[in-house]
Amino acid sequence: MERGTGPVLATERYGSSESWKYIAKDGVMERKRDGPESESRGNSVVGVFKSVFLPQGYPDSVSRDYLHYQFWDTVQAFSSSLTGTLATQASLKGVGVGNKEATVAAATVTWLLRDGTGMLGRILFAWQKGSKLDSEAKKWRLFADVLNDIAMFMEILAPYFPPFFTLIVCTAGIFKSIVGVAGGATRAALTVHQARRDNMADISAKDGSQETLVNLAGLLVSLVLIPLVTDNPVLTLSLFFLFTTLHLFANYKAVRSVVMETFNEERLSIVFQQYLRDKQVLSPQEANLREPVFIEFRKTVPIKLGVRLQEVILSLDELELALKQNNMPYLLGVKNGM
């Protein structure tokens, strides 16, 4: 007990390095920061940083893999910002910026075609793959970033192929629209995983603040790079491949650091196979480490939930057979051996 103070009635700490104590003094309860004054001043600076860029209550309010994932996500966002600058410069050059012979109308048409094809691509991709983005968030997150790098590479090369410039940038626009859908949807799924106190909105907002800070840093670095790479295709491509390598590596480390605590088809299969092999139940950490994070373009057994009855039952005899000694509120069907 400190001299001149009463007993400590309570202490409080909420996801921060700072802690406070309540002291009874002269019949009044006083609130005082715990620890030396110099340490308190240092903690106040750290506390401000945490309150601006980290969710309230960190680290108790987020999943254990939050910091590891956000670190690598920050690295990939920074490198992506720099490659995006190189791609934007190439696109502007391709539509005629700095070229006296280029017309405003031609540049506008090219830009509108790129945006229009991108919108169509966004709708079609969401229609075809929207239901897969939740359960396979890590795969599609990594796929989106790889596709984004491909799109930016196409934009950088487009000015060197004038006859095909519009076709190339429109294709890149479709790829980027897919990236927007897949990246946004999988980020939402990861936010659900990271939230531990129904604080999805706070995590999403702080992720936006972190990304804004990274993009600001990327902007400052880009101001230095642009004069160096202008009219220097060799340096442009060299920097692009350097930043892209860093971008892909950081993305791989980011998705590998995520430890999902629920089953999807891949993790369930991994756990079942291990259990059938040696009766061992894998922990979430072990199952996630074995889960593939790259999209596999191979034929798989289609599993459909909630299908119409006529897709499973084709006759009254089959219906009677399916309902025989079946007290469950659902039916399981195998069609064509699958």
UniProtKB/TrEMBL annotation:
Keywords: Membrane, Transmembrane, Transmembrane helix. The keyword Transmembrane helix applies. The chain crosses the membrane at residues 164-190, 211-229, 235-252. Residues 42-278 form the Protein root UVB sensitive/RUS domain. Residues 280-336 form the Root UVB sensitive protein C-terminal domain. It holds the Pfam family UVB_sens_C. It comes from the Eukaryota. It is found in: Membrane. GO terms for cellular component: membrane. InterPro entries: RUS_fam, UVB_sens_C, UVB_sens_RUS_dom. Its main location: membrane. Belongs to the RUS1 family. This is RUS1 family protein C16orf58 homolog.
